[in-house]
Design goal:
The protein contains ten helices and nine strands. By secondary structure, the chain is α+β, with helices and mostly antiparallel strands.
Length: 258
């Protein structure tokens, strides 16, 4: 993330660095307190607006250089074959479901870790996943992804197998496991704490490395750009791709097509 040095004291750098979002919060606070005390806000000054726009441009320019490769079918097949070699059955079942669902649904890490058993509905021809809150949808309006079971590397059976072997019937779908790949137990009861968003990236990179794929060139977001790119290669219509990822802006969706 792009960060900026701000402020000086007695001619010396403050050594504090702020991200774009942090700067935005402080600008909003400055505006609020000026207006609250009856003063015009300096945040509307043309030079301030120009500077903030420059910060954002630099942020997105840096992001362009940090783009990861899309996770296409060729890499996904190698990942699946690698995961299938995992001797710990619970771990294997969870990670097959996680990686295939992540890619097929074009999910963000923050979205897939929040999926619960109530988010899933099995049709004869597809796995239907319902999301309530996403990065682009903070109002809680239901969004649905339909993942056909005849699509290459469909998560349909993998997710079903994971739920069966884990015995999960409620709560988060993807849970943490002990180091030996068995369920975590506390006070004699089986407990599966939910995995976190960083766990998703860690799990993916672990299998990338095992599969002989450079983990530095891929990340969890590679699954999202991967499904967009792969569906484009397969000549799937843009509206179907948009419904898969949940993008509101077609221009932003286009940046995911590598």
């Amino acid at each position: 993330m792009t960060r900026y040095h701000i402020g000086t004291f007695n001619g010396e750098s403050s050594a504090r660095q702020l991200s774009n979002s942090a700067i935005g919060i402080r600008v909003a606070a400055i505006r609020h307190f000026h207006i609250e005390h009856g003063f015009s806000s300096p945040t509307t000054h043309p030079e301030i607006i120009k500077s903030l726009e420059g910060f954002r441009r630099n942020h997105y320019r840096n992001l362009m250089y940090d783009e990861k490769k899309p996770l296409l079918n060729s890499e996904l097949e190698r990942l699946i074959n690698t995961i299938k070699q995992e001797p710990r059955q619970l771990l294997k079942a969870r990670d097959l479901a996680l990686i295939t669902l992540l890619r097929a649904g074009g999910f963000r890490r923050s979205e897939i870790v929040k999926l619960t058993t109530d988010s899933l509905y099995y049709r004869d021809d597809a796995l239907v996943v319902t999301l309530r809150f996403t990065k682009a949808n903070q109002a809680g309006k239901a969004e649905t992804k339909i993942l056909p079971n005849d699509e290459d590397f469909s998560p349909y059976q993998y997710v079903k197998d994971w739920l069966k072997i884990s015995g999960l019937t409620s709560g988060p779908i993807f849970r943490s496991l002990s180091t030996n790949g068995l369920s975590l137990k506390k006070n004699g009861k089986t407990e599966f704490p939910s995995i976190s968003a960083p766990d998703v990236n860690r799990i993916l990179k672990k299998y990338l490395k095992r599969a002989g794929i450079d983990p530095h060139q891929f990340g969890a977001h590679s699954a999202r750009s991967g499904i967009v790119t792969q569906l484009g290669i397969d000549n799937v219509g843009i509206m179907k791709i948009q419904s898969r990822t949940g993008h509101k802006d077609l221009r932003m969706l286009a940046t995911y097509n590598k």
